[in-house]
User: Fold ABC-type xenobiotic transporter from Streptomyces alanosinicus.
Amino acid sequence: MPSVIEVTELRKSYGGRAVVDGVSFTVEEGEIFGILGPNGAGKTTTVECVEGLRVPDGGRIRVAGLDPVADHDEVARILGAQLQQSELQAKLTVREALELYSAFYPNPADWRPLAERLGLTPKLGTRFGKLSGGQQQRLFIALALIGSPRVVVLDELTTGLDPRARRDTWQLIEDVRASGVTVLLVTHFMEEAQRLCDRIAVIDKGRVAALDTPAGLIRRSAGATVVSFTPSAPLDERELTGLPALASVEHRDGRITLTGTDETVDAVISLLARHHITAHQLRVTDATLDDAFLDLTRDHTEEAAA
Ligand SMILES: Nc1ncnc2c1ncn2[C@@H]1O[C@H](COP(=O)(O)OP(=O)(O)OP(=O)(O)O)[C@@H](O)[C@H]1O
Assistant:
Protein backbone atom coordinates (compact mmCIF):
# COMPACT_ATOMS: atom_id res chain seq x y z
CA MET A 1 0.00 0.00 0.00
CA PRO A 2 1.43 3.45 -0.83
CA SER A 3 2.15 5.93 1.98
CA VAL A 4 0.05 9.05 2.01
CA ILE A 5 1.82 10.71 4.97
CA GLU A 6 5.55 10.47 5.63
CA VAL A 7 7.05 12.05 8.74
CA THR A 8 10.81 11.73 9.11
CA GLU A 9 12.82 12.92 12.12
CA LEU A 10 10.34 15.71 12.90
CA ARG A 11 11.59 18.25 15.44
CA LYS A 12 9.86 21.20 17.08
CA SER A 13 10.98 23.22 20.12
CA TYR A 14 9.36 25.96 22.16
CA GLY A 15 11.61 28.27 24.12
CA GLY A 16 14.55 25.92 23.65
CA ARG A 17 12.59 22.88 24.88
CA ALA A 18 12.14 20.08 22.35
CA VAL A 19 8.48 19.02 22.45
CA VAL A 20 8.79 16.89 19.29
CA ASP A 21 12.20 15.28 19.24
CA GLY A 22 12.80 13.15 16.16
CA VAL A 23 9.38 11.66 15.40
CA SER A 24 9.12 9.38 12.33
CA PHE A 25 6.15 7.39 10.98
CA THR A 26 4.33 6.74 7.74
CA VAL A 27 0.59 6.44 7.21
CA GLU A 28 -0.60 4.10 4.46
CA GLU A 29 -3.46 5.04 2.16
CA GLY A 30 -6.77 3.71 3.54
CA GLU A 31 -5.70 2.98 7.11
CA ILE A 32 -6.79 4.43 10.44
CA PHE A 33 -3.53 5.46 12.06
CA GLY A 34 -3.60 6.39 15.73
CA ILE A 35 -1.36 8.72 17.69
CA LEU A 36 -1.57 7.90 21.36
CA GLY A 37 0.36 9.40 24.24
CA PRO A 38 0.17 11.06 27.65
CA ASN A 39 -0.68 14.76 28.09
CA GLY A 40 1.94 17.06 26.67
CA ALA A 41 3.65 14.24 24.72
CA GLY A 42 3.70 16.30 21.51
CA LYS A 43 0.77 14.68 19.67
CA THR A 44 -1.06 17.85 18.65
CA THR A 45 2.20 19.58 17.71
CA THR A 46 3.02 16.62 15.44
CA VAL A 47 -0.32 16.55 13.64
CA GLU A 48 -0.42 20.34 13.33
CA CYS A 49 2.96 20.15 11.57
CA VAL A 50 1.44 17.52 9.24
CA GLU A 51 -1.46 19.91 8.58
CA GLY A 52 0.98 22.75 7.85
CA LEU A 53 -0.38 24.80 10.78
CA ARG A 54 3.02 24.82 12.52
CA VAL A 55 6.43 25.08 10.90
CA PRO A 56 8.83 22.30 11.96
CA ASP A 57 12.34 23.18 13.18
CA GLY A 58 13.74 20.06 11.57
CA GLY A 59 12.89 16.87 9.72
CA ARG A 60 10.74 16.27 6.69
CA ILE A 61 7.00 15.86 6.17
CA ARG A 62 5.26 14.80 2.97
CA VAL A 63 1.51 14.56 2.42
CA ALA A 64 0.87 12.81 -0.90
CA GLY A 65 4.41 13.85 -1.82
CA LEU A 66 3.81 17.53 -0.97
CA ASP A 67 5.37 19.75 1.70
CA PRO A 68 2.62 21.03 4.06
CA VAL A 69 4.33 24.42 4.46
CA ALA A 70 5.66 25.12 0.94
CA ASP A 71 2.62 23.53 -0.78
CA HIS A 72 0.09 24.67 1.79
CA ASP A 73 -2.86 25.27 -0.55
CA GLU A 74 -2.53 21.93 -2.33
CA VAL A 75 -2.13 20.08 0.97
CA ALA A 76 -5.24 21.83 2.33
CA ARG A 77 -7.21 20.28 -0.55
CA ILE A 78 -5.93 16.77 0.19
CA LEU A 79 -6.13 16.89 3.96
CA GLY A 80 -9.30 17.62 5.92
CA ALA A 81 -8.67 18.96 9.40
CA GLN A 82 -11.09 18.92 12.28
CA LEU A 83 -11.93 22.34 13.65
CA GLN A 84 -11.59 23.14 17.31
CA GLN A 85 -14.78 24.10 19.15
CA SER A 86 -13.68 27.72 19.48
CA GLU A 87 -13.34 28.07 15.70
CA LEU A 88 -17.06 27.89 15.00
CA GLN A 89 -19.46 30.70 15.93
CA ALA A 90 -22.17 29.56 18.31
CA LYS A 91 -24.85 31.47 16.35
CA LEU A 92 -24.15 29.78 13.02
CA THR A 93 -26.76 27.18 12.09
CA VAL A 94 -25.69 23.75 10.87
CA ARG A 95 -26.80 24.62 7.32
CA GLU A 96 -24.90 27.92 7.38
CA ALA A 97 -21.72 26.22 8.63
CA LEU A 98 -21.94 23.56 5.90
CA GLU A 99 -22.56 26.19 3.18
CA LEU A 100 -19.79 28.45 4.49
CA TYR A 101 -17.18 25.69 4.58
CA SER A 102 -18.25 24.37 1.15
CA ALA A 103 -17.41 27.79 -0.24
CA PHE A 104 -13.79 27.40 0.92
CA TYR A 105 -13.11 24.54 -1.51
CA PRO A 106 -12.95 24.54 -5.31
CA ASN A 107 -14.64 21.10 -5.57
CA PRO A 108 -16.60 20.58 -2.36
CA ALA A 109 -18.63 17.46 -1.67
CA ASP A 110 -22.39 18.04 -1.84
CA TRP A 111 -23.09 18.82 1.83
CA ARG A 112 -26.67 17.47 1.76
CA PRO A 113 -25.84 13.73 1.48
CA LEU A 114 -22.94 14.31 3.86
CA ALA A 115 -25.32 15.83 6.43
CA GLU A 116 -27.73 12.94 5.83
CA ARG A 117 -24.99 10.34 6.36
CA LEU A 118 -23.95 12.01 9.59
CA GLY A 119 -27.53 12.28 10.87
CA LEU A 120 -27.50 16.08 10.77
CA THR A 121 -30.46 16.64 8.41
CA PRO A 122 -32.99 17.19 11.24
CA LYS A 123 -30.60 19.72 12.80
CA LEU A 124 -29.91 21.91 9.74
CA GLY A 125 -31.76 24.89 11.23
CA THR A 126 -30.22 24.50 14.73
CA ARG A 127 -27.51 26.89 15.89
CA PHE A 128 -24.12 25.34 16.63
CA GLY A 129 -24.26 26.50 20.27
CA LYS A 130 -27.53 24.60 20.81
CA LEU A 131 -26.25 21.22 19.54
CA SER A 132 -25.36 18.41 21.94
CA GLY A 133 -21.68 17.41 22.23
CA GLY A 134 -22.22 14.42 19.95
CA GLN A 135 -24.04 16.52 17.34
CA GLN A 136 -21.25 19.12 17.41
CA GLN A 137 -18.68 16.36 16.82
CA ARG A 138 -20.72 15.04 13.89
CA LEU A 139 -20.75 18.54 12.41
CA PHE A 140 -16.96 18.74 12.84
CA ILE A 141 -16.60 15.44 10.98
CA ALA A 142 -18.88 16.77 8.20
CA LEU A 143 -16.82 19.97 7.93
CA ALA A 144 -13.56 18.00 7.86
CA LEU A 145 -14.96 15.89 4.98
CA ILE A 146 -16.55 18.70 3.00
CA GLY A 147 -13.53 19.28 0.76
CA SER A 148 -13.59 15.57 -0.28
CA PRO A 149 -10.18 14.98 1.32
CA ARG A 150 -7.99 11.91 0.85
CA VAL A 151 -6.91 12.15 4.49
CA VAL A 152 -8.78 13.41 7.51
CA VAL A 153 -7.08 14.42 10.76
CA LEU A 154 -9.19 14.02 13.90
CA ASP A 155 -7.72 15.26 17.19
CA GLU A 156 -9.44 14.18 20.44
CA LEU A 157 -12.72 13.85 18.60
CA THR A 158 -14.60 11.94 21.29
CA THR A 159 -13.32 13.78 24.38
CA GLY A 160 -16.28 14.89 26.48
CA LEU A 161 -18.81 12.60 24.79
CA ASP A 162 -20.94 10.11 26.69
CA PRO A 163 -20.29 6.40 25.98
CA ARG A 164 -23.15 6.10 23.47
CA ALA A 165 -22.18 9.21 21.51
CA ARG A 166 -18.57 7.99 21.55
CA ARG A 167 -19.58 4.62 20.08
CA ASP A 168 -21.73 6.34 17.43
CA THR A 169 -18.73 8.49 16.52
CA TRP A 170 -16.52 5.38 16.22
CA GLN A 171 -19.02 3.92 13.77
CA LEU A 172 -18.86 7.15 11.76
CA ILE A 173 -15.06 7.03 11.67
CA GLU A 174 -15.24 3.44 10.42
CA ASP A 175 -17.73 4.53 7.74
CA VAL A 176 -15.39 7.36 6.71
CA ARG A 177 -12.55 4.88 6.26
CA ALA A 178 -14.83 2.46 4.40
CA SER A 179 -15.51 5.29 1.93
CA GLY A 180 -11.77 5.30 1.10
CA VAL A 181 -10.55 8.19 3.28
CA THR A 182 -7.36 7.69 5.31
CA VAL A 183 -7.78 8.70 8.97
CA LEU A 184 -5.08 10.14 11.26
CA LEU A 185 -6.55 9.98 14.75
CA VAL A 186 -5.16 11.55 17.92
CA THR A 187 -6.69 10.02 21.00
CA HIS A 188 -6.33 9.55 24.74
CA PHE A 189 -8.71 6.59 24.84
CA MET A 190 -7.15 3.14 24.72
CA GLU A 191 -10.45 1.48 23.95
CA GLU A 192 -10.94 3.84 21.03
CA ALA A 193 -7.44 3.18 19.69
CA GLN A 194 -7.82 -0.58 20.15
CA ARG A 195 -11.19 -0.67 18.40
CA LEU A 196 -10.46 1.69 15.49
CA CYS A 197 -6.77 1.84 14.63
CA ASP A 198 -4.93 -0.42 12.22
CA ARG A 199 -1.64 0.84 13.63
CA ILE A 200 -0.71 3.13 16.50
CA ALA A 201 2.32 5.30 17.21
CA VAL A 202 2.73 5.71 20.97
CA ILE A 203 4.36 9.12 21.47
CA ASP A 204 6.01 9.90 24.78
CA LYS A 205 8.13 12.97 25.58
CA GLY A 206 8.32 13.97 21.93
CA ARG A 207 9.52 10.58 20.68
CA VAL A 208 7.90 7.46 19.21
CA ALA A 209 8.01 4.95 22.09
CA ALA A 210 6.46 2.18 19.95
CA LEU A 211 4.72 1.75 16.61
CA ASP A 212 2.66 -1.35 15.93
CA THR A 213 -0.82 -2.79 15.55
CA PRO A 214 -2.89 -2.69 18.78
CA ALA A 215 -2.35 -6.47 19.22
CA GLY A 216 1.38 -6.05 18.53
CA LEU A 217 1.69 -3.31 21.18
CA ILE A 218 0.02 -5.56 23.74
CA ARG A 219 2.26 -8.51 22.82
CA ARG A 220 5.44 -6.49 23.09
CA SER A 221 4.60 -4.93 26.46
CA ALA A 222 6.30 -6.67 29.35
CA GLY A 223 3.12 -7.93 31.01
CA ALA A 224 1.06 -9.37 28.17
CA THR A 225 -0.71 -11.90 30.42
CA VAL A 226 -2.22 -11.22 33.83
CA VAL A 227 -2.83 -14.01 36.37
CA SER A 228 -4.47 -13.42 39.73
CA PHE A 229 -5.51 -15.76 42.55
CA THR A 230 -5.96 -16.02 46.31
CA PRO A 231 -3.58 -18.73 47.61
CA SER A 232 -4.83 -21.12 50.29
CA ALA A 233 -1.48 -20.70 52.13
CA PRO A 234 1.29 -18.07 51.99
CA LEU A 235 3.78 -18.33 49.13
CA ASP A 236 7.50 -17.70 49.40
CA GLU A 237 8.09 -14.22 47.93
CA ARG A 238 11.48 -15.28 46.49
CA GLU A 239 9.87 -18.11 44.59
CA LEU A 240 7.28 -15.70 43.19
CA THR A 241 9.79 -13.07 42.09
CA GLY A 242 11.94 -15.81 40.53
CA LEU A 243 9.16 -16.87 38.13
CA PRO A 244 10.22 -16.83 34.46
CA ALA A 245 9.29 -13.80 32.26
CA LEU A 246 7.66 -12.10 35.27
CA ALA A 247 6.95 -8.37 34.75
CA SER A 248 5.29 -7.48 38.07
CA VAL A 249 3.88 -8.90 41.32
CA GLU A 250 1.19 -7.21 43.38
CA HIS A 251 -0.33 -8.28 46.71
CA ARG A 252 -3.68 -6.87 47.74
CA ASP A 253 -6.08 -8.18 50.43
CA GLY A 254 -4.53 -11.65 50.29
CA ARG A 255 -4.78 -11.75 46.50
CA ILE A 256 -1.74 -12.03 44.25
CA THR A 257 -1.65 -10.53 40.75
CA LEU A 258 1.24 -11.37 38.43
CA THR A 259 1.91 -10.00 34.96
CA GLY A 260 4.16 -11.80 32.54
CA THR A 261 3.74 -14.28 29.72
CA ASP A 262 2.13 -17.71 29.28
CA GLU A 263 5.42 -19.11 30.60
CA THR A 264 4.86 -17.23 33.88
CA VAL A 265 1.36 -18.74 34.16
CA ASP A 266 2.64 -22.31 33.58
CA ALA A 267 5.39 -21.80 36.15
CA VAL A 268 3.11 -20.37 38.85
CA ILE A 269 0.69 -23.29 38.43
CA SER A 270 3.58 -25.77 38.85
CA LEU A 271 4.78 -23.82 41.88
CA LEU A 272 1.34 -23.99 43.50
CA ALA A 273 1.05 -27.73 42.74
CA ARG A 274 4.51 -28.40 44.24
CA HIS A 275 3.47 -26.77 47.51
CA HIS A 276 -0.06 -28.25 47.47
CA ILE A 277 -1.50 -24.74 47.55
CA THR A 278 -4.92 -24.12 46.01
CA ALA A 279 -5.42 -21.01 43.86
CA HIS A 280 -8.89 -19.73 44.75
CA GLN A 281 -10.68 -17.60 42.14
CA LEU A 282 -7.90 -18.10 39.62
CA ARG A 283 -8.20 -15.67 36.68
CA VAL A 284 -5.95 -15.51 33.64
CA THR A 285 -6.54 -12.61 31.24
CA ASP A 286 -4.73 -10.96 28.36
CA ALA A 287 -3.40 -7.49 29.07
CA THR A 288 -5.29 -4.60 27.46
CA LEU A 289 -3.90 -1.75 25.41
CA ASP A 290 -4.19 0.27 28.63
CA ASP A 291 -1.62 -2.01 30.29
CA ALA A 292 0.64 -1.86 27.22
CA PHE A 293 0.38 1.93 27.14
CA LEU A 294 1.34 2.28 30.80
CA ASP A 295 4.24 -0.09 30.28
CA LEU A 296 5.46 1.69 27.14
CA THR A 297 5.24 5.17 28.65
CA ARG A 298 6.57 4.26 32.11
CA ASP A 299 9.58 6.29 33.17
CA HIS A 300 12.27 3.63 32.70
CA THR A 301 15.04 6.09 33.60
CA GLU A 302 13.52 6.64 37.05
CA GLU A 303 13.17 2.89 37.45
CA ALA A 304 16.78 2.30 36.48
CA ALA A 305 17.90 4.98 38.94
CA ALA A 306 15.82 3.32 41.70
N1 LIG B 1 2.64 27.36 20.99
C1 LIG B 1 3.27 26.81 22.02
N2 LIG B 1 4.18 27.52 22.76
C2 LIG B 1 4.83 26.96 23.78
N3 LIG B 1 4.67 25.69 24.20
C3 LIG B 1 3.79 24.93 23.52
C4 LIG B 1 3.05 25.45 22.40
N4 LIG B 1 2.26 24.46 21.92
C5 LIG B 1 2.48 23.38 22.72
N5 LIG B 1 3.39 23.66 23.66
C6 LIG B 1 3.91 22.72 24.69
O1 LIG B 1 4.43 21.60 24.01
C7 LIG B 1 4.14 20.39 24.71
C8 LIG B 1 3.44 19.43 23.78
O2 LIG B 1 2.14 19.94 23.49
P1 LIG B 1 1.10 19.17 22.57
O3 LIG B 1 -0.17 19.97 22.57
O4 LIG B 1 1.70 18.85 21.27
O5 LIG B 1 0.91 17.83 23.41
P2 LIG B 1 -0.22 16.74 23.32
O6 LIG B 1 0.49 15.42 23.32
O7 LIG B 1 -1.16 17.00 22.20
O8 LIG B 1 -0.92 16.94 24.71
P3 LIG B 1 -2.46 16.79 25.18
O9 LIG B 1 -2.73 15.33 25.17
O10 LIG B 1 -2.41 17.33 26.56
O11 LIG B 1 -3.30 17.58 24.23
C9 LIG B 1 3.33 20.79 25.93
O12 LIG B 1 4.20 20.86 27.04
C10 LIG B 1 2.80 22.16 25.57
O13 LIG B 1 2.64 22.95 26.72
In short: Residues 14, 19, 37, 39-45 surround adenosine-5'-triphosphate (CB under 6 Å).
